[in-house]
């Protein structure tokens, strides 16, 4: 059986933070916004099959495919306008 850990946070706090950011930017039009932005979810797993499974578990509800980008890396991405929601799994030796 594959084992992976998804570095997830407090959903309610994350959503509240996004709403707060939108409110702040709406109220302060002089504040510049980035051309593109990303939100990333990281998957930890020691083996390739588990890393892929972890990414697939997030990609499925997003409705996007999992990509094998080589050398033990997997990712999936869904764009919301200029903002990307990304899930990525990085081999353990690269996280050191």
Quick rundown:
The protein contains 2 helices and 5 strands, in the order βαβαβββ. The chain is of the alpha+beta class. A 5-stranded mixed sheet has the order 1-2-5-4-3, covered by helices on one side.
Task: Report on this structure.
The chain has 96 residues and is of the alpha+beta class. Helices cover 33% and strands 31% of the residues. The chain contains two helices and five strands. A five-stranded mixed β-sheet has the order 1-2-5-4-3, with helices on one face. Strand 3 (67-70) and strand 4 form a beta hairpin. The protein is elongated.
Mean pLDDT: 93
Major β-sheet annotation: 5 strands, mixed
Q: Provide the succession of SSEs.
A: EHEHEEE
Shape descriptor reads: elongated
SS field, number of helical segments: 2
Q: What's the end-to-end separation, in Å?
A: 25 Å
Number of strands: 5
Q: Which tags fit this structure?
A:
2 helices, alpha+beta, 5 strands
List the helices and strands and how they pair.
Blueprint: E1 5-7, H1 11-27, E2 37-44, H2 48-62, E3 67-70, E4 73-80, E5 83-89
Parallel strand pairs: 2-5
Antiparallel strand pairs: 1-2, 3-4, 4-5
């Amino acid at each position: 059986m594959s084992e992976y850990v998804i570095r997830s946070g407090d959903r309610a706090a994350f959503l509240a933070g996004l709403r707060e950011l939108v409110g702040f930017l709406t109220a302060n039009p002089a504040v510049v916004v980035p051309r593109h932005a990303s939100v990333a979810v990281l998957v930890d797993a020691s083996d390739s099959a588990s890393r892929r499974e972890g990414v697939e578990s997030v990609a499925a509800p997003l409705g996007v495919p999992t990509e094998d980008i080589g050398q033990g890396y997997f990712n999936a991405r869904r764009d919301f306008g200029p903002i990307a929601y990304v899930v990525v799994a990085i081999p353990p030796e690269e996280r050191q």
